[in-house]
Amino acid sequence: MRAARQDPDSAPAPDAGPALFRLLGPLTVTIGAQTLAIGGVRSRAVLATLLLDAGKVVSTDQLVEATWGADPPASARIQVQNRIGRLRRTLQLVPSADALIGTAPGGYTIRPRDGDLDLDQFRALTGTAERLEAAGAAARAAALLGQALQLRRGPALDGLTTPYLASAAHGIEQRWLLAFEHRVRLELRLGRPAHLVEPLRAMTVAHPFREELHGLLMAALYRAGRQADALAAYRTARRILTEQLGLEPGPMLQSLNLAILRRDGDTVDAEVSGPLARPRRPSTVQVRTPAVRRELPAVPAGLTERAQQLSLLDQAAGTVQRAPVPPHGLPPRDGPRAAPAVLVHGPPGSGKTALAVHWAHRAAGQFPDGQLYLELNGPSGPVEPADALARLLRSLGVPGPSGDVLEAAARLRSVLAGRRVLLLLDDASSIAQVEPLLPGGSEAFVVIIARVRLGALTARHDMARVQVGPLSTAAARQLLGALVGAARVHAEPDAATDLVRLCAGLPLALRIAAGTLLDRPHRRISTLVQELRTAHGLRAWRRMDPAWAALTGTLDTSHGLLPAPARQLLHRMGTATTGPVSPATAAALTGGGTTAAARWLDLLCAAHLVREDPDGRFTVAPLIRRYVHDRVASPVPSAL
């Protein structure tokens, strides 16, 4: 006797009861109404990493990377062992706790029971929904997808920000988004478009560059009898894509728009049907999807007195506080960043790059799609925008650089759209060099390091600005002590202060001086101070120790970016005067008018080679004067 065929709509669904372990939101472990105290962020990172590979062996090195990122402490492996022990004690209340966290060769493993992990529930519900849809049970499949979407309580692994876990969270969010789009398609096929409009409208705001969502919104509006609104949704999508990315909508959106104009319902349904989205556009930009690039230089040691600047960088790259999950399982909107980019500027040798690299490593978890570094001033001078674009595109997996700067810039914006990438652009020299490298959307973030202020660039693109100045005397002494040993500084406190002043509080100069002292452990600080004081110009310092070439090299770069009149004024201010200079005196030094002299003074201030005092006069720092003595050639005008 043949067995009766089972009705797909009556097929059992996976158990979607309350999970004990939850990753679709902040990591939590619950038993009934009780939420267990897992501990601090490190303990939660260890548990989350184990749960992401539940049932598999997770190596200790993997746990260290996921917990601390690229710069773990020397005791990281011991700390992992200690946290595993504490987690085992905490999880004793969980059913079958004796089998939860086990030790395996080279690492650890966790084995929750079936249904105890929300991510497993999500996979089971979406998998069953696909099978039901294939069997013709679209209504049941849509219901199960709705259950799966409701498991999300907020951004996956919220609060865990190391690159390893941020990348895992990004993958989970993408799977959730695909499930949302899948459910919308099923609801459209079932003829239920009206309740989809508002959730889809909110989703297009949260993900403005995702063409599939714009297309689904257009289809839902059209199927709800709102043709004019559907056409308006296309115009909105086109404006976003063209203004932000420099790209026209892809074939799917264009075909939808034409079909809605013609009231061609069959084409509308065909464009948005099926369990998988169509490609967004033809592969005119071929991306090889390389491994996530992490190109940041090594973390510099001895960062001192930069807490305020680090806080400003955090604010510039920060996102709006996320709101609770709204109805219909929609994710909260990822708010726009406080700024699309930030400019870090300051005098040569002040530690701008050290600050930016230190912050970038600390914030790397916010950018799971990659952290790119590009030096914009090479041995032969500033890097041309076309070459800079080609290098960035190669890092992002795009072959064949275009010789056209506008085309390559549009291609870069397209590749970066929707990707959380950090761009660190070091030693920028001009607006024209930087502007083509800026992304169009709000996901990627740019840190520009420059010797000049680039005020027009920051105003035009609403950038935040972070100024890095010389260290205070106390902070500079602290840095010197960290480099050569506190005992040497305490033994000669006055000489240490004199050395700090000779170095103008610049970290680069202090590090070079510290290297000289470390190479000669028996040399007194006062001896080095006396040698530096009596030496005339930085060239004499270089003859004493070639390491000073690093300081003169960075000053050479700033000097070379100046136009000739500004360079001439700097030379004369550094040799013909000893105190502050007014604009009228500067005019006399150059033999020109006061208006022109004021313009050149502004350029020197923007390059951080001259300081403007509160009384409106301008001062050249002693260290810059020493440099100018090496460069000067022009005589002083008789008018002075």
Automatic annotation (TrEMBL):
Its family remark reads:
Belongs to the AfsR/DnrI/RedD regulatory family.
Highest rank taxon of the organism: Bacteria
Q: Which keywords appear in this protein's UniProt record, sorted alphabetically? A: DNA-binding, Transcription, Transcription regulation
| MF terms in GO | ADP binding; DNA binding
Q: Which Pfam family would be a valid example here?
A: Trans_reg_C
Q: State if Transmembrane is listed as a keyword.
A: no
Which residues belong to any copy of the OmpR/PhoB-type domain? 11-112
The reply on keyword Iron is no
Give one GO biological process term: regulation of DNA-templated transcription
Q: Which residues bind DNA?
A: 11-112
Q: What is this protein called?
A: AfsR/SARP family transcriptional regulator
Q: Which SUPFAM superfamilies match?
A: C-terminal effector domain of the bipartite response regulators (SSF46894), P-loop containing nucleoside triphosphate hydrolases (SSF52540), TPR-like (SSF48452)
